[in-house]
Amino acid sequence: MLDRRTFLQSAAGTALALSTQLHPLLAQAGEGRSANDAIQLALIGAGIQGQSDTSIALQVPGVKLVAVADCYDGRLTHAKELWGADLVTTRDYREILARKDVDAVLIATPDHWHKQAAVDSLHAGKDVYLEKPMIHVYPDGPAIIEAAGKGNRILQVGSQRVSNVAYSKAKELLAAGAIGKLNMVSAHWDRNSATGAWDYSIPPDASTETCDWPRFEGTAPKIPFSAERFFQWRKWRDYGSGVAGDLFVHLFSGTHFITGAHGPTRAMATGGLRFWKDGRDVDDVLLALFDYPEGFNLSLHVNFVDGGEESEGFLFTGSEGLMEIAGDTVTVSRTPVESEPGFTVSTFSQAMQRAYVQQYRAKYPPAHPSGPAVQDVQKFAAPHGYSDRYAHFNNFFNAVRSRQPVVEDATFGFRAAGAALLSNLSVQRDSIVHWDPEAMKLV
Questions:
Q1: I need a labelling partner for 102 at 20 to 30 A (CA). Which of 163, 301, 302, 318 fits?
Q2: Lowest-pLDDT range of 25-29, 213-217, 291-295, 395-399
Q3: CA triplet 304, 261, 397: central angle to 5 degrees?
Q4: Per-residue model confidence as pLDDT tens digits over 155-203
Q5: CA nearest 422: which of 291, 186, 244, 260?
Q6: C-alpha to C-alpha distance for 45 and 74, rounded to whole angstroms
Q7: Angle in degrees, CA 256, 261, 262, rounded to 5
């Protein structure tokens, strides 16, 4: 545990900017790779997230995109516009997996395709970057973990916050006792806009001719073609996992990375459709409380209701202070622990009050004769231009080359997503649900 003076000395040495020593990924980011060391990458699922991810992944030196698979022809056309006419494109990702020139795949499909696409890729000998949430339903987790282990493949789950230097600093500070014993973590992610609520634009040419609807449906219930479901799939449980899988999973990943916890033992959640009553069947407001065996509680909320600014963040409450994460910054507010318990004697007789206070002060001399304790506030920020998405991909590609562990493997990803989906389960059952974070099973 850091005493107050040691903490302030440590804070002063790193205030306002995080050194690259805090996270090896920044030091590695500038390393070039020779052409014959290039990693051949393929994209499976070229929607908004897939195209955005790929643009970041290709910034890492020594990475080349060779193929793209998607169920909408327009995305395949745009992929060639973005990355070259020689790009291999297909509706069927299995054609990509059969190619010997593909070393790794980036999977950014709807949630209900995560397991099958990941398992097929791993069995085909490809390393996998799998977008969050790792799972759509609980049986997906063990299947992905087993496939990654059998083939000795690299699998990184795409919750980039765990590669963020600010989170590494928060982890370091918490372990050093900067805020004392952790009692409570409060986290939120409010995305108050139409696009934030997944009302993505539908292309005018959307039809059964341009969209491979049967392939998109996969294991989902079979219904007639719906352009809205195809392009705004997160709004339905058949294909996505709602705000829990889209946003809560980030908050769990961050909490687990910073605290070292494996997951909660029970969850209580409530929510509902408050604003976006457009046919979707997932809630736009979700609040949940989780109990952790390490002795702290995690309180989460997501709000998709229009009317406020978009924001995300964490507040770690400890016995000696607070630690807040907002974007790429960490702020620690440390209040010295009271050196005495205090007293309440105003209802005693005056003689008793005098005697009590005299005895009390003999035991507890005034610790701050000149006034109350002063709260110390220190702020840490990632370097200008820093990108945790780049860092996360850099971590993945370094692991592909070195065969060393990634920061967010399948077990970590399952524990984060499994915990997040407890929220949906609690709302559906209208009850407390229990989870074994070590065995990664519902109880």
A1: 163
A2: 25-29
A3: 80
A4: 999 999 999 999 999 999 999 999 999 999 999 999 888 999 999 999 9
A5: 244
A6: 12
A7: 90
Q: Residue 394: is its pLDDT beyond 70?
A: yes
| Amino acid (one-letter) located at 300 | L
Q: Which structural domain, as residue segments, surrounds residue 213? A: 169-337+373-385+409-442
Which of 99, 5, 112, 123 shows the shortest CA–CA distance to 43?
Answer: 99
Q: Which CATH number goes with the domain that contains 44?
A: 3.40.50.720
pLDDT tens per residue, range 290-335: 999 999 999 999 988 867 778 899 999 999 999 999 989 999 998 8
For residue 290, is it within any domain? Answer: yes
